[in-house]
Write a structure and sequence with these properties.
Elements: H1 6-16, H2 20-42, H3 45-61, H4 72-93, H5 95-104, H6 122-140, H7 144-153, H8 160-167, H9 171-189
Helix pairs in contact: 1-2, 2-3, 2-4, 3-4, 4-5, 4-8, 6-9, 7-8, 7-9, 8-9
Length: about 200
């Protein structure tokens, strides 16, 4: 158990012993990253908020069986990914119902975030909103394993080995998925970006 991940593991072990405060601290720490991951996987904020609650319900239910065999965040995002896959399968089985839900609710991929405090003009804001929409659209169009690998790669706490554990694939395969995802995005977003470089250092 390394020093970076020990606090999360210690909290989860306290949850296993029935400590509600420890569970609340884990939820507080990870709820927003989990919502963001699910939202960027499914493109529906309301669904992301609902599924994130299910993620933590599963964490709580599994607490009695929890064993600190790896990083807590890896285990947590594996649960989140599995719930996303279940939702994607459900949508594939019921496409008409999924389309109707999107039409009645928020537009898929729409951002709900605080206003940018910078004093930009309306043109700057419009361009930024368009870029954000194009990025989210391009990410959602990636194959699921590439999308998941890329989203987890943007999380600072995830190494390539951690991402491979979530995906259930080798380190080489993980790096290949991330490389293909980056190349696809750079190709699609080239007209909107001055640089196609990503800022994640190579592990």
């Amino acid at each position: 158990m390394d020093s970076e991940t020990a606090p999360d593991t210690a909290l989860m072990l306290r949850v296993r012993s029935g400590d509600r405060e420890a569970f609340a601290r884990l939820v507080e720490r990870y709820q927003q990253p989990v919502i963001s991951f699910i939202f960027r996987s499914l493109g529906d904020l309301a669904e992301a908020e609902d599924l994130s609650q299910q993620v933590f319900v599963q964490v709580h239910k599994a607490a009695a069986r929890y064993q600190p065999a790896g990083k807590f965040s890896t285990w947590l995002f594996t649960i989140a990914r599995n719930l996303c896959l279940n939702e994607l399968r459900r949508r594939a089985r019921h496409p008409a119902h999924s389309l109707e839900a999107m039409e009645e609710g928020e537009a898929p991929g729409a951002w709900r975030q605080p206003e940018d405090p910078r004093p930009d003009g309306p043109v700057d804001n419009l361009l930024r909103a368009e870029l954000e929409a194009r990025i989210e659209e391009a990410i959602r169009d990636l194959p699921e394993n590439q999308r998941t690998a890329l989203l987890l790669c943007r999380e600072e706490t995830f190494s390539y080995e951690d991402i491979g554990r979530v995906l259930g694939c080798s380190l080489t395969a993980t790096k290949s998925l991330i490389h293909r995802a980056r190349e696809t995005l750079k190709g699609r977003l080239k007209p909107y970006l001055r640089s196609g470089e990503w800022d994640r250092p190579t592990d």
